Amino acid sequence: MKNLIIKQTKQIIKTLISNIILFISLYITIFFSELSLRLITNISIFEIQAYLYDLYYSIIIFIFILLFKYHVIKSLIISILSLLYCLYNFYTIMQLENDIFFSLLTNNPIMLAYQLFLCLTPFILTLTILAISNQIYDHYHDRIIYIPIMILILYLISKPMPTRIHNYMVLDYKKHPSNTHSAAVYQDKSQRELIDVIEKLGYIIADITRYQNEKRITLAHEISEEEINNASNYLENHHPIIQTNEMTGIFEGKNLIMILCESLDDSAIDKEITPTLYKLKNQGISMNNHYAPLFINHTSDSEFISLTGIYPSQEYGSTYKYFADNNYPNAIANLFKEENYKTNAFHSYLEYFYNRDSMFPSLGFDEFYGASALGIEKEAGTLSGYQGFYKDINMIIQMFKYTDTTKPFFNYFISLSGHGVYKFTRPDLQDNIKILNNSNKYHNYPHEAKSYLAAQMLLDQALAKLLDQLEINDLLDDTVICLFSDHYPYGLSEEKTIELLLDNEYEYSKYHVPFIIYNPQIQPMQINKLTSTFDIYPTLANMFGFDITNSYTIGNDVFSDNESFVFFKDGSILTDNLYYDSSSDHIIFLSDDTDTTKLNMIKEKINDIKTYGQDIIRANLLY
Length: 623
Description:
By secondary structure, the protein is α/β, with parallel strands linked by helices. It has helices spanning 2-40, 48-65, 71-96, 99-107, 109-139, 146-158, 189-198, 204-213, 225-236, 275-283, 298-308, 319-322, 332-338, 356-363, 377-380, 383-388, 392-401, 430-437, 447-472, 495-501, 536-543, 597-618, and strands spanning 255-261, 285-287, 290-291, 342-346, 367-369, 409-414, 479-485, 515-518, 525-527, 531-532, 566-567, 573-574, 578-581, 586-589.
């Protein structure tokens, strides 16, 4: 009898242990899938409620699995569920189509494969634990040693995994010409905490954390004194050519609301569905030949260019991530600060996305009101929140709550509604989709096209609210509204949709986007001069009467006589009379003027911009 009790007790313990391990393997899949998904998409990783939900789902699923008698069947079911869950996570990332993922997809297939591996890592862990579990089921008393061995193997195989560690120099060459380098290592606290938690399970997840979330990194891309000297000489000899014209200082003393319109294309400006955008375009100053080149870091690069007029880092990591502590004294917000303006930035997504919380103070913003400051971090940090988005109109309302309108102000507003994904299922688009379905013009458009237009209609409704609030507060006449698009809507996937919405006669045509300046007291203008994102900064500086003679900027004031050109990431060039396609080394003439003598000069100028522009940022030479 005693032996029977001991035998049954051992059997119960064995069954209990094996079931506990089965449950752990199931929860590992769900927990680490959630974690890796959040890391890859830059969504808040420390959200306890989300992981509690994961635990709840794991328990429900496991209760169902317990209905099966045989251990091997339970293991098989968990394995299949684990694989499906991991693949679904990767599919979810693809559907999100945010800037980070899209950049990896188009520019770094190795990192894309690495992210797929990360998504499958929980599945690999689950299989490993299930294998141990099956061994334990038969020989649980002598197989426990497999667990530390598995952890050691994971640690060893993850160490050589590729990491995106960029190193750079913090160098004050002007103050210390003989200084070879001086730098410091900055480690994000949240990242350190995460690594502490998971390092015993390997550094696989930690690598992606470093790639996505590091604020500052150590030295490796060393810059020689010769490079510094060359960049300094270039800087001293390339000040902008300033011309006083009829628009110089026309807005001096007025407020400025500068709005980055996410993925806004000219096709979305229509009297029927976006009447406010249509009004601003036709009653303001509209740059009708404006282009937004798409560089490596997409929105953050366009943002940096428009706020500074400077070529952003391309070869040494994102400017926002790796050069956030540089000096940008002539950034537009810093110019306003010198005139005692209150400078604010607003965005309804997470502050640390694109490292804006670190970058914006350097660009001259007194305050940055993101999801955390506005009390919506919990919602913004969830996938459901990200997919549901936030209507820009709510941010406009918040903006007035946090703006002291008794003093001159410069508000920079980063719109969100126009961001992909463009799906019929997006809850915030439903009312606008109904309008489009009832429209004679748009009812036959593909679902994706209508979803895109519905998203831009949300922006339009926010702009209507903005004008109303300015008028109610008697601020409309004293406030300038500047609208510009960060890039074309590359989130559109259907070829037919792109054809419907974008004018793609030539490859460069898709980069044609709006740039509008509005104030009810100015005469409406339709400007056909060629402009790009680089021209936004000098144009605003001229119109607000700022002296940027001693600054460094690439673009030109729209109202000057200086000739503009547009250059693209691949080296292609657009001028008034031609388009040079670098991929084919072919020239397309756009007018009767077939003179190409200026093209080589422009190529040289672009080469200098790319070479010295990188070194200026690397060596922190802007003072």
